[in-house]
Design a protein that fits this description.
single chain, about 325 residues, alpha/beta, D-Maltodextrin-Binding Protein, domain 2, 2 domains, 11 helices, globular
């Protein structure tokens, strides 16, 4: 028994020393930053804006790897299967990280990952065509839907996406029945609305700005605590009396089991990179609503999404 205890202590000591030695030399080679969506989307944009400043802080190059598919599950699963050495990190967007395990069996659990930093929280909005005279505001939209249960179609970027969840939350908080229409992404959702094939769309605020400014879309309300800076005339649902707060949070996580020393090196570098004035300016110009939260605060954000979405899933079972 005594000999066994000594052996266990020696193993723990060796593992601790190995982690410290690895951290002392970290990083000594390029790092891969995985994006679980296609090139050109909102997450890809913020990844490519952020990477040069993270490179500067870490003193090594960062390669962007796009791994789209299955509501981000393909990319998140890829990250889960990488070595926990700090050389593979990736975006584990919310609510996708949470919603996928609720819809089907996944290789990962929500709590497996180590959140490093949340970069962006992009609130949801409900938009209609600008020339749709039936819906000049949210109240007229809700009244029509109430009088015609299930007849109002609201497009989204796919089952389990933040847009889909936003529609269900709207239905839950207003007591009005809608018909969600899933598409394969944000672009076909917008196209269907502008083509008159659906009556409204749930999209992210950053995606709506250019279409509102060009006179193609009208925003009925924003799903945030405060008004969206680039859409100052658009009211929030809360202002109008509806507790609807939803959106997409885009943050970076470490592989499960990554040593604490490496996690903190990455988190410190990420925080400094996110505070770089050049990065902040570029992100603002790109209509990326920054919401910087590090380590424990980033974990709290995951926990908040996990709790609220589980509760919604119990009611709607999507």
């Amino acid at each position: 028994m005594r000999r066994t205890a000594v052996v266990i202590l020696m193993v723990i000591l060796v593992m601790s020393m190995s982690s410290s030695i690895m951290a002392a030399d970290y990083p000594s080679k390029p790092i891969t930053l995985m994006v679980p969506f296609s090139a050109g989307g909102g997450t890809d944009v913020i990844a490519r804006l952020f990477a040069p400043y993270l490179e500067e802080e870490l003193g090594t190059s960062i390669a962007i790897l796009n791994k789209p598919g299955s509501n981000a599950e393909v990319g998140i699963t890829w990250l889960y299967n990488q070595k926990p050495d700090g050389y593979s990190i990736g975006f584990t967007n919310l609510p996708h990280l949470v919603s996928n395990p609720l819809m089907r069996e996944t290789n990962y659990k929500v709590d497996d990952f180590i959140p490093l930093i949340n970069l962006v929280t992009d609130p949801g909005v409900i938009v209609v065509k600008a020339d749709d005279d039936r819906f000049p505001d949210l109240e007229s939209f809700l009244k029509f839907a109430e009088e015609n249960p299930g007849s109002v179609t609201i497009g989204n970027a796919g089952i389990g996406s933040d847009d889909h969840i936003a529609t269900l939350m709207l239905q839950d908080r207003t007591g009005v029945k809608f018909t969600p229409v899933p598409f394969t992404g944000a672009a076909p959702n917008r196209t269907a609305l502008l083509g008159g094939h659906i009556m409204a769309s749930a999209i992210n605020a950053s995606e709506a700005v250019q279409f509102v400014e060009s006179g193609q879309m009208r925003i009925l309300a924003v799903m945030s605590e405060k008004r969206y800076p680039d859409l100052p005339d658009a009211p929030t649902f809360k202002e109008l009396g509806y507790n609807v707060v939803s959106g997409s949070s885009r943050g970076i996580s470490c592989v499960p089991g990554t040593p604490d020393e490496i996690v903190h090196i990455l988190a410190d570098a990420a925080e400094k990179a996110a505070e770089n004035p050049e990065f902040v300016e570029k992100a603002t110009k790109a209509k990326q609503p920054l919401d910087i939260q590090i380590l424990d605060d980033a974990q709290k954000l995951v926990d908040q999404y996990n709790s609220s979405i589980k509760e919604l899933h119990k009611k709607f079972q999507w």
